[in-house]
Amino acid sequence: MKPLIKQQENGVNIGEAARESGVTAKMIRYYESVGLLAPKGRTESGYRVYGAQEVHSLRFIRQARRLGFLVDDIRRLLALWHDRSRASAEVKSIALEHVAELDQRIAELSQMRDTLAHLASHCQGNDRPDCPIIERLAATTTPDCHEPGHAH
Description:
Helix content is 56%, strand content 0%. By secondary structure, it is mainly alpha-helical. The protein has two domains: 1-69, Multidrug-efflux Transporter Regulator, Chain: A, Domain 2 (Orthogonal Bundle), CATH 1.10.1660; 87-152. Helix 1 packs across helix 3 (52-66). Residues 1-8 and 147-152 have low confidence and may be disordered.
């Protein structure tokens, strides 16, 4: 295991940046690979060095991920964050697009939950092999359980 570099005037190593930001070192490398964080220079001994601004950006990314933003949206939000001449309308637009996507996912999850609960309520749960859950999973088509005329 490589020894940790203590915080220096020019920054911290990836492990310390991870601790300070709450983002794992693996995710920091990933964020660099997808362009959310600029690739870092290295010390003579080969360590990446991160400054306060990069650690702050990592915290920003972590918060955006907690809210479910995708990488492309985070990239846009980071650019707007760094642009002091930004219009807040752009930020709001990104947020509202994400809210709409979340609403869609919530509706899909709710429908999945309702379908599974419906199937489970019609399963006897006994020693017999008949089971509407298995029958639905094995079906070649997937009708909505709540469609009129659907056999329960």
